[in-house]
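Q: Joint fold for the lines below.
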Amino acid sequence: MQYLVSVIADEATHAGTPDERAAIDVFNEQMIADGNWVFAGGLAAPSAATVIDNRGAETVFTDGPFVESKEFLAGFWVMEAPDLDAALKLAAEGSKVCNRRVEVRPFL
Amino acid sequence: MSEVETAITQVHHEEWARVVASLARRFGDLDIAEEAAAEAFAIAVEKWPADGVPPNPGAWLTTTANRKAIDRIRRESKRDDKHKEAQMLSDDEPPESLGAIDDERLRLIFTCCHPALAMETRMALTLRMVGGLTVPEIARAFLVQETAMGQRITRAKAKIKAARIPYRVPSAEDLPTRVSGVLAVLFLVFNEGYLATGAETDPVRHELTAEAIRLTRLIRALMPNDGEVAGLLALMLLTEARSTARVSSTGELVTLVEQDRGAWDVTMIGEGHRLVRERLASGVAPGRYQILAAINAVHTSARAVGDTDWSQVVALYDQLVRLDSSAIVVLNRAIAVAELDGPEVALAAVDRLDDKLAGYHAYHATRADLLRRMGRSQESRAAYDKAIELAGNTAETAYLTRRRDQLGRA
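A: Joint structure:
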């Protein structure tokens, strides 16, 4: 079972500190060693986003994120875990090392 | 009620959670488990009055429910995984031993009370899946529309499935926190019955307090060595024992001080006291529910309010404050302090809670009472007004209004 763990940030807390990045590296290495790690990545700020709509005759490019909000996705993990309890435990550790709230959602 | 109807009600109480739990284990799906169990009980209601109650009602219900579940899976199997179906249909494990069934009921409880579910969802799901209350009954208990409650329960079951909330008893390291979550759910159900909010409802909802006690008894039978489980059961029993004396014939709240102690339920008090003594004898440091139960044991030991051992009550509150220094605990401690050291000392402690409890009716009711005892009528009246404005329970509002109006005549 794979879970997406989204890292929730806001403008004020977006850029991680060097300490946070180091803690995340240690956490990731442990996840790799335990077989939980699938993929992870940090994302640039929503201001760097471009939205594309190619459903009509013309391709429309729009500057900025698809939804304006105070909170946004700053990064994510894809984790392999046997069930929600295991995923929640890993996500709780992830929240601590990256010093942000996280959201856990299963893949279909 | 006929003899058979009584028997069915009793079997429903005793066997519902077992039937649902064993189906949930076998089919791995709460939806199927619940619907098949409900169908089996419906068939029992139809057949038993004519055929008589079978010698082993639990086994009869489980077998019937299993058959219904398989029927449903067959009907739906066109879009389901054929292999899974084959596996379920060939499941011919020997009947579970009693211990295994008890484990299954625990698993069911821990699944319904999983921290990934919202608290109100946990309450509803526990009452449905473990308590066997119908959706309309639960909707009535929480004063919401039946369709809304049905959707809440359906969504919860869908989340359990989609998020893969495991169906198991938590590991030893997670157990204490998860048990406390289960107890919190049961205590909320109890309190919703005991201090029913809402201007239109009965002040005490016995269907909810009775259900909370029944489910806590079930947990106690499953986890007899957990001190907090025993403590919560004792606390509920000692509280429930006073419920008939707690509301007057005119629907007004009767405070502990004014209650007719002869109207208290001596059987429940006896059982509550036994549980408290059992916990004291264990020598293990008590948790929050055990201390609250002990406080209630002191109150219910006094034949008249004047005999209450207030120093012991305050000592127990001191112990509780060390575990939980929340403003509400401090407020309740101050009420006991007023009896021991007088209203002036208590009021000084209560007034310090203003920034935290200004929106809580009991804070203003306590202040009103203390100010009244100190002869500061005008301030007392203002505090009663505030308490009446904030109180949600009809019996409490009636009591506070009378107290305020007595001030007027004084």
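Q: Anything notable?
A: DSSP finds 21 helices and no strands in chain B. Chain B touches chain A through ten residues (CB under 8 Å).
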